Amino acid sequence: MSGRTSDTMNWHALEADVAMEQLKSRPEGLTPEEVQERLKEYGPNSLPAPLKKSALMRFLSQLHNVLIYLLLVAAVVTAFLGEWVDTGVILGVVIINTFIGFIQEGKAEKALDAIRNMLSPQALVLRDGKQLQVAADTLVPGDVVILQSGDKVPADVRIFRARDLRIDEAMLTGESVPAEKYTTAVPEDAPIGDRKGMAYSGTLVTYGQARGVVSGTGVATEIGRINAMLTEVEAITTPLLRKMDHFGRILTMAILLLAAFSFTIGLLFQGYNLVENLLAAVSLAVAAIPEGLPAIMTITLALGVQRMARRNSIIRQLPAVETLGSVTVICSDKTGTLTRNEMTVTTIATADGLIEVDGVGYQPVGNFHRNGERIEADTDTLLRHLCRVGLLCNDSVLSQSENEWTIQGDPTEGALITLALKAGMDRRQEQGKYPRDDSIPFESDHRFMATLHHDHNGKGFAFVKGAPERLLEMCEQQRTQDGSNVSLEKAYWQECIQQIASQGQRTLALACKPMPAQQTELSFDDVQSGLVLLGMVGIIDPPRTEAIEGIRQCLSAGIRVKMITGDHALTARAIGKELGIGDGTTALTGSELETMDDEELMRRIDEVDIFARSSPEHKLRLVKALQSQGNIVAMTGDGVNDAPALKRADVGVAMGIKGTEVSKEASKMVLADDNFASIVAAVKEGRTIYDNLKKAILFILPTNGGQAGAILVAILLGMAAMPITPVQILWVNMVTAVTLALVLAFDPSERNVMNRPPRDPGEPILSPFLIWRIAFVSLILVIGSLSMFQWGLDNKHMSLESARSAAINGLVVGQIFYLFSVRRIIDTSFSPLAFTGNIYAWIAIGVVIVLQGLFTYFPPMQQLFGTGPLDLTAWLRIIWIGVAIFLVVEVEKFVWRRRLCRGDQCEQP
Ligand code: ATP
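^ thats the input. predicted complex w/ adenosine-5'-triphosphate below
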């Protein structure tokens, strides 16, 4: 338990400065020493970990499973019959199974916890006057935090400065409309929803900016008091696992019916006595239950999710893993996801024509040219003023460490700082000459940013930068080379935009406006009109090479990629062409989209892959339109306003680096590196996990089918002895099958995994193909093991025990060969890769060979399991059976491939 106990304080009722005083803090924040001291005193700003099931409860919950109940009944029946060894072994199996389930569930949970920790929230604080990004759990009472739209409030905060602040407090108040916040104090008895001067931990900033002082951390926050809602335990499950659970129940019923059927046949027609018959029915039931399957499926899923995390895709909600494999459309943002987000200004347009700028990246080295001739930026007043606006209407920081120039903040702004430095300007000096009084931050919705400055003579200026079309609406005049203002020539500027954008450059316009000397606050109305346009810049942002490859892979995997960007249509088209999205000629803009009704959008959406000048609300319409056409949509996003679309998409994908907390909260997956290629890797992994789950089922169920079938056939044929006894069956199910099946959880992707169309999400896991394959392989395993058993019985030198050894070893060796077959569901396994692609296969086989040796030859094991030794001829026959099983399945695969594949493209059976 941690945090300050501040129950006695009604922070909302205190004036902000009084609260600040009480908390012994200052507007510029605490010093690092004070933070350390307070951290010791109040503890970290975190809530106690959600209550987990106790170890004992987790252990016991493993027993709560129909299949285990059936085993317990089998134990009672064998005990009743006096077959104590069988009873002991069955109970042993129940205990081992419970342990394995318990350990694996624990491991899977740990893996997922580790992944969740990768998403720990951050907070922006002021300490000693410096702005710092820190882990939210290091906040202490008295810390000054900065809140911006998109943030999750990191602690309870008394606000002392607010600008258009709106906070979504639904989690505390149930109120779905975001509450407006100010700095005012309210009466002591005001309910939470009315406490205008407070921002509460865990709520979401949907608009505006603010500063506040932390009044409570950890359990002393409002949310800490209602901790109950955080203590739910999230079960490790997905629709597929739930379906399998359901399948387990149906299977159990079927097994019971089958056992009853064989019991009746044995008693009425074959003349077995009651004890023999009961034992046979128990064997049949035990044989048919896939004891190890649930554990294998859970571990396959957990391992897959871990692999995804290593490839920078962090899954927040497990069902997304399966949905990823079915995705048919990926809608991606452009900047930073498809492009590198390393921006450089290369073109400038002023009223006097175009200027080219040299240099790459953020390094401020480069010259200016007009018509091929170098110009000196120091003497060009218009150029200098344009650069000044770019430099001062700017919240980012450019810094140099070891010859590398990096930017903190928005790359578009970084490009403008570099540009100003190339023009020989000094940021400190400019900031000194034109100190900033106020600002309107950039938002994708209004597409501009504005700042208010005063020079030393008291003259006021508004500096504005933003999307050119937007600024053209706000400007009335343009600045000429000689410094005078003349009326705006819109047509000229439109042409400039066309020219810059058609080269794939991002366009941005810069403008200014004189302001009254006494004005210290800037409002929207101040800059809506009367601006003077200084010029425009063209910024390049090269595509990511790995995104080009990713898009190519998507296309061959039957997935459409749509690019959604705030950029100009021409820029978007040109970049889309480089990336391989769209045909280079079609793009739909946000304003065109707004004029369409839903039906028209649905009609057009298939033809268009590029959506330009679009804002977050358009994303929601696009997702809906795509979904209504039956698509499974993955959508990326980073801003607050992207949240509805992210939530609505089948797989919402938030950006880990530049994404807001709100967008992460709304998403099922977070990209640690903001890179489009990671989405493609996640889709591939999602398909692989699904394949591996399928392979585990395809591997384990025929083992059960083979054994149950062998017993059933033996009963139907009225054989004198059963080919396999219950304890032997349990050995096969629990030891060899599980050891071998675990290999499949580590299986790498199949060769054609990204060459086939997406999986239909409605498709049942046990498709007719899978049922066929399970029945087919079961049948050959029945034939293999029964023929070995019969051969043993016919062989005068062999005991019944040895004949059973032969049957079981036939089955296990058959499984070993089948393991290589099943690694490729319909692809041929006649390839070196099928044998070398997964090193765990050989380790597992080594383990199984040693275990089978002990099972067959080690006297105590012989005693326990009722087995006998085998000679070389028997082994040769067994190996031959294994090879035969492998070959028969390969022939079956060949037949399927002829039906389903065209070249490299195979439909999923
Ligand atoms: P994405 O492709 O990821 O959706 P984007 O960067 O293309 O994002 P926005 O960020 O919405 O889209 O930018 C849209 C336009 O707004 C840009 O083309 C540019 O003209 C302008 N712009 C971008 N960043 C800023 C900024 N920091 N200040 C002012 N204007 C900006």
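The radius of gyration is 35 Å.
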